[in-house]
Amino acid sequence: MSTSGAGTAQRRGHGHEHGHGGDHVVSVGLYLGVFAALMVLTGITVWAARHDFGALNTPVAMGIAVAKALLVILFFMHVKYSSRLVQLVVVCAFVWLAIMIVGILHDYYSPRVTPDKAPVPALSRQ
Among 2, 68, 94, 96, which residue is least crowded by beta carbons within 10 Å? Predict the structure, then answer.
């Protein structure tokens, strides 16, 4: 009696562990659909780059970029089919990235203090 077949099935993710971290097979059609969505979003990116949305330029660009990043992370990196721990790590990374981007944009758009508008120290007013 040979047990090599059972070992092969478990190595492929087919065994008693099915549904608990095993391999997930994604159809080619789904990959093509995600690819098509990424191409549409790339076209929208090019279109948006040629239009002036005023103060909304950055939010529009960031929204498109986040949508494309989510598609890549969820489907091409297989996070959608990963364990809850992996999904939690990815969400935490995205939240940290959002915090950093908000901080940078806040600093970038904050009013500049120039030497002629700088407050005068209290000791030099005499």
Answer: 2
